[in-house]
Design brief:
By secondary structure, the protein is α/β, with parallel strands linked by helices. Helices cover 41% and strands 14% of the residues. Helix 8 (183-195) links the parallel strand 5 (167-171) and strand 6. Helix 3 (48-59) packs across helix 11 (271-282) and helix 7 runs parallel beside helix 8 (183-195). The protein is globular, with a radius of gyration of 21 Å. The structure holds 4'-deoxy-4'-aminopyridoxal-5'-phosphate. 4'-deoxy-4'-aminopyridoxal-5'-phosphate (PMP) is lined by residues 40, 100-102, 126, 171, 175, 203, 205, 233, 235, 241, 246.
């Protein structure tokens, strides 16, 4: 029996640059002591107080169907948080609660794309973006962002692609680069969206992880409120990856349609998870800072270490839990370097090539092991790169 093309086209042809990741996982399963600096998951678990709130809610009976768009309490809490951060008047009617940011990304694209529409996203990109778009029946189109400009999209990158497209998906703080978009970048994005009548889908799941500069939500820019769908999640901000809780913030009519979509897909999010999320948000910035603190510390450890050499160059890492390292001075591709590092030192990192064409020659390092282990692994990584860089044969014409 044949499977629908929509499904078989979700992921590419299999040569997706995730070989290192799978190899590391297999080695780990065999008992090898692999240091995994690969995926974006905290090395701490959800705070005990959040779990207590979750248990209390469940015991009190919030285990039946919850309201499809989300509980009144959580929708209000999310709306207040967004309004406080962005200054844009926001109410519960602007919010749909979703089972995590990923399903929000899919639903947002479903809301604005017809089959065959062109949907843009920036390269380097979070691994699911192309498949998320293709799953809606639209055509995914990557906009390549230059490493020389810290992977921030410029008008020259966006303009040629924007003509005839329907939507643009952006992500700041960015996974995989750790870059936080500057105000000028946002202004360019807004101008492009307005000039070409694009929907903007803004993935802001790392909004609490900003180490340098400030997070700007493009929904707050002039002319953007009615064409922006903002994706949020408690996964990264509150170490609640397994709870599957996120949201979409957008214009009321879109949220009404998305509620209809939720009725036909997820049928909402468990009430006790929503109550736990509401409790977590009520703890305010203090808890968010506590969850973000390990990454803030490890970034400084890394910058200190990297300042002592000139083979490995860090892309300015202003946010998120990743470092994007430029390995081109070693003469190796990101993929070859990552394989060699895993084979020689049992340290697993993601090749830049796993995240598109633009990050070729780079690696992504997730700062997701304890400080000591992180320092040791990065020290080995840098020494290994230096050795390769020094023995590199430079061919001169
Ligand atoms: N967007 C980005 C950029 C991510 O890195 C992730 C998770 N790694 C997600 C969305 C999805 O997160 P979740 O579904 O856990 O909320």
């Amino acid at each position: 029996m044949e499977i629908a093309q929509r499904m078989t086209a979700l992921t590419g042809d299999g040569s997706d640059g995730w070989d290192v990741f799978y190899k590391a996982r297999a080695l780990k399963k065999q008992g090898h002591p692999i240091v995994e600096l690969t995926i974006g998951e905290h090395d701490i678990r959800t705070h005990m107080n959040i779990l207590v709130a979750m248990g209390r809610s469940a015991k009190e009976g919030h285990t039946g169907y919850a309201a499809v768009p989300g509980t009144e309490g959580l929708r209000n809490a999310v709306a207040r948080r967004i309004e406080a951060q962005s200054g844009v008047p926001t109410s519960a009617e602007n919010i749909l609660i979703t089972p995590g940011g990923q399903s929000a990304l899919f639903a947002a694209h479903m809301a604005v794309l017809n089959p065959g529409d062109i949907a843009l996203y920036c390269d380097p990109y979070y691994a699911t973006y192309p498949g998320t778009i293709r799953g809606t029946g639209a055509i995914d189109h990557a906009v390549r962002c230059d490493p020389a400009h810290d992977f921030q999209p410029r008008a020259a990158d966006l303009e040629p692609a924007a003509k005839g497209a329907r939507s643009l998906l952006v992500n700041s703080p960015n996974n995989p680069t750790g870059v936080v978009y500057a105000r000028a970048t946002w202004e360019t994005i807004a101008q492009t969206c307005i000039a070409h009548n694009l929907w903007l889908i803004s993935d802001e799941v790392y909004d609490t992880q900003v180490w340098h500069g400030a997070h700007i939500s493009p929904r707050s820019l002039e002319g953007m409120q009615e064409r922006s769908l903002v994706i949020g999640s408690m996964s990264k901000s509150h170490a609640m990856t397994g709870s599957r809780i996120g949201w979409i913030c957008g214009p009321v009519p879109v949220i009404e349609h998305l509620t209809n979509l939720a009725t036909h897909t997820t049928y909402g999010v468990p009430g006790f998870i929503q109550d736990a999320a509401e409790f977590a948000l009520a703890q305010g910035q203090e808890l968010e800072d506590e969850v973000a603190a390990p990454f803030r510390r490890r970034r400084l450890i890394a910058l200190d270490l990297l300042a002592q050499q000139n083979i490995v160059r860090a892309v300015p890492c202003s946010g998120a839990m990743y470092l994007m390292l430029d390995m081109r001075a070693t003469g190796l591709s990101g993929e070859t370097f990552a394989h060699a590092l895993l084979d020689a030192h049992q340290i697993a990192v993601m090749p830049g090539e796993s995240f598109g064409q633009a990050a070729a020659g780079h690696i992504r390092v997730a700062m997701t092991v304890d400080d000591d282990q992180f320092f040791k692994a990065l020290t080995i990584l840098v020494a290994f790169a230096t050795k390769i860089g020094q023995t590199k044969v430079v061919f001169e014409p």
